[in-house]
Each structure stands twice: as C-alpha cells, then as structure tokens.
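Fold this: Lauroyl acyltransferase
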Amino acid sequence: MSAISVRDVWVEFGDQIVIENLNLDIASGSFVSVVGPSGCGKSTFLRMVLGQDRPTRGSMTLDGKPLPDEPGADRGVVFQRYSVFPHLTVLGNVLSGYEFAQSPLLGKLFGAKRRAAIEKAEELIVAVGLGAHRDKYPSALSGGMQQRLAIAQALAKDPKVLLLDEPFGALDPGTRAQMHALLKPLWARLGMTVIMVTHDLKEAFTLGTRVIAFDKTRHDPQAPGRFGARITYDLDLTRDVAVPV
Ligand code: ADP
Ligand code: MG
C-alpha cells in the first residue's frame, strides 16, 4: 500500500521552478532517504509533505486523502536544529508534541488523560535514551541529545510519517553513528514511514530502504530558475538489483 502519492507536482516561487513534474509513490512503512545538492528542492519537498508548502500544480495524498486538507498531527518533523522548545524541559517538550496532537486548541490535558500522556512521554524519553534527563532543559543537553529529544517529540504525535530534514547534519561522526543505532530499530519497531533528507550518502544507504536523488538535471545559465529538480535515480534497496531510472 502506498502511504504517500505525488502526482504531477510542480513547485514554483515567482518565476523560479523548484520542483518539476514530480511523480512518486512512497510505500507505507518504508524508509526513504532523499539526497541531492544544496538548493535542489529537498526541503521544499519535505515541507510539501508536511503541508507547510503547497504545490503550484499537481496533487499529493497521504493514505488516499489530499495532503494539504489534513491537519499536521499525523506527520512529525525533525530539523537539523531548533526543533525543540528551549523553555520546556525534556518531559515538557515531549508532552507538547502529544498535547498538540490531542487537543491543539486547549493545549493542556487534565486528569487521567494527562497521566496517560505523561506515561507515554516517559516511555518515549526512555526509548530515545534520555531516561536520566527527563527534567533538564535543552540548553543542558548535547547536540545529539537535543536531536534525540526532537525525535521523541515528533513521535509523541503518533505520526504516520516521520519527516527528517538533515537531522544529524550538525553532529560529529561518533554521535551520528549513535543516532543511526537509535533510529533504525525505532523505525522498525514503530512501523512508520520515514522520509529523511541527508547530505551524507553513507547515512542514506545505511538507514534507507530506498534512496532517491533529486537534481537539477538541466541548467539554463541565462535563466537559472527555468528548470526545476527532477529525480535522477531511485534505488529500491530491498531488491537484489537496483535499477537507476
Ligand atoms: P534544499 O533543501 O535541497 O537545499 P530548498 O528546498 O531549501 O533546497 O530550496 C530549493 C530552492 O527553492 C532554492 O533555490 C531556494 O532558494 C528556493 N526556495 C525555497 N523556499 C522558498 C520560498 N519560500 N520562497 C522563495 N524561494 C524559495
Ligand atoms: Mg534543505
């Protein structure tokens, strides 16, 4: 079953074409790595899946429903930096993800519901390896720990799709390796669909079940925005033989 379906999608900002006629099906439960040079439209693609940007033309669906019409609660997102609230503790941050999903208008939960939310948040905090840091503020955490927290916060929404935009790009190689060791089993256990943008090809192939490369295959020096990004290869790593498109 296809979780995300992208049909004839174009994205233009003014007279600049960023994404050109994108067609893509992402299977439910897959881990898709998206690679490509800076400025080729990877973040724009993620923002469309998140529902923050709309395609200029074309359509996108999640489990058969049009994407922009859905609330964002079924999608969690982690950016390279600034995904967590500095004024909330580890627990507060994870609860903020949960409360947003449960009651976006009321913001706060009470009684049994709140106890259940705290219990679930604590489970997530342990699952990402922050069990000893529940009451700390992000400023007291290392970069890797902050990204662990961002992942827990995104997962608190019980998302169908987890969107990661260069989530480990600011971390040193050792910490990145620890994040890989965290993320892959979490993904396998939770059975969600992941789309991860990364600059690191090794990371793309280590974590992904599929690797998609975006590129501006054609470039017009007279009109730099005339052609948008297209898919230059699409490798299914679950098959024996990967065939470039
Ligand atoms: P990547 O994530 O692959 O580095 P982006 O998706 O951030 O690339 O950007 C792709 C192109 O779209 C860039 O040329 C960028 O300047 C342009 N762009 C992205 N968002 C906007 C926007 N909101 N308004 C105008 N141009 C934008
Ligand atoms: Mg980007």
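The chain has a mean pLDDT of 87. The first strand starts at residue 2 and ends at 13.
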